[in-house]
Structures are given as C-alpha cells and as structure tokens.
Amino acid sequence: MSKVIGRRHLAAMALMAVGMTACGGEHDSGAQTANATVRRDTEQSAHVHSQKQLENAVVDAHDLPGVHVEEIGAGTKGVGNGVIHAARRTDTEPSLCAPVSAAVDGASGYTPGGSVQRIAGRKGHSAILTLVSYHSADAARVINELRTALKSCKGYTAAGPMKATYEDVEATNDPPQGDSGVAFRLKASVEPGEDGLKIPTSVIAIRHGSTLAIYKATSELPGTSASIPSDLVNAQSKVLDAAVHTTP
Questions:
Q1: 191: Cβ contacts below 8 Å, ≥ 6 apart
Q2: What are the structural domains, with CATH classification, of the chain?
Q3: pTM exceeding the 0.90 threshold for the entire prediction
Q4: Neighbour-count burial of 44, counting CB atoms closer than 10 A to its CB (0-12 exposed, 13-18 middle, 19+ buried)
Q5: Which pLDDT band, with edges at 50, 70 and 90, does 194 fall under?
Q6: Dihedral sign, Cα of residue 69, residue 216, residue 206, residue 130
Q7: DSSP letter (8 states) at residue 49
Q8: What is the C-alpha to C-alpha distance for residues 99 and 153, in angstroms, rounded to an integer?
C-alpha cells in the first residue's frame, strides 16, 4: 500500500467514525423550516418506531443474501445503538449548511425517538447505515430542509471532536425508494494545502413514514467517487416500507 493510499485509508476510517460522536445538543429554535409545504398526510401522527424496532429493522441475510452487518463499536457495548441526537445549527459554518452537515453524520436538527448505526454491505463494498425514527412530521421536514440547503450550500466547516471541512457539495439525483429522499456528494478536506487529502463522500437520505434511512460511503482511492451499494439501499428500503405499512 503506497503512502498516499495509506493516508487516505486512515482518513476515510476516521471520517466513517465521525457519525458516532459528532452529533449532540438540541434543535436550534432559530433553524429555518423548509419553504416546501409538508403534505397533510405526513402532518398526521405516523407510527414512530421504537429503538428495539429499529434494531430489528436493520437489513440482514434474509433480506440481502451475503450482506455483512457490523455494529459500530463492536466489543464496546454496541455504541452504534442510540447515538444520534439533534445537531446544533451553530456547529456548522455557514449555518445554512447545517442540514447538510447533520445528514453527513446521520442526524438532523430534530430530536429522534430512536436511532441505530451499522456498517453494512457486502465484502469490499459497504456503507454506514443509520436508521432514525422521528416524531410527527419531523421526518418530512428533515428531507425538505436538506433539499433546500443543497440549493445554496457549496461547502462548510463542521465543529466537533474531529473538526472537518467539506467542499464541492453537490446534489445528485433523488433516490426512487421510500416516500421522499435526497442524495448528494461532497469532499472532506482532511489536510490543508495543495497536496492535502480530499475524501469523496456520498450520502443518501430516504424517508419511510416517520423513519429516515441515511447511507454514507467514502472513497479511499484518488480520483474515485464514493459509491453506496444499491443492493443495500434496495433491500433496506423494502424492509422499512414493509414496517411502515404494518399495523403496530
């Protein structure tokens, strides 16, 4: 492994771990609500999946043969369970990028009812999978605010245990799964200077009722875009769609 590839590998692993610890605080009362009108049916109180239901909803080999799912923090009492909290808008500069910054960590500006994070996929091709259950219409607002932010956010700096700068934020095609969703890519600038590392990162956020599934992948190879496994997204979406339409 070359020195550059080695540095990229370590940097990518560090970025993969950011979502475990970077989220905290409460929803900023000054956060702007997306201009898009939330549909009436989403305003009604939808079933909010409990922590246990979220853990049971994580894709497994029955849903996707050959899938490998690993708890984040395995051996440390599974810190991948229940780690997502409301993100502070003030932790992102500029603040208009706050919804984007939160989504990269699997979070939002709203307090969730439960959350689960896993590393999931097939051998050699995986992503961080975050399932977050929200109350009432908050899940729809998360998607709307993220879509609005992506129209003007081009780059930002996120505070936290590992301060990171992200550049080249760009919305991509909306995912076809779920009730609504957005997708985007960006680059994490890990080291300053012309020779600094810029890690391509891809994120997909899909709403299934009051539950959000957020997928994040990073690339370790220079000039290679980050790819989120489509089979993982499809399989997990089927599980969540079934859960949404099942009477609790």
A1: 7, 11, 197
A2: 3-24+45-244 (3.40.1000)
A3: no
A4: exposed
A5: low
A6: positive
A7: P
A8: 10
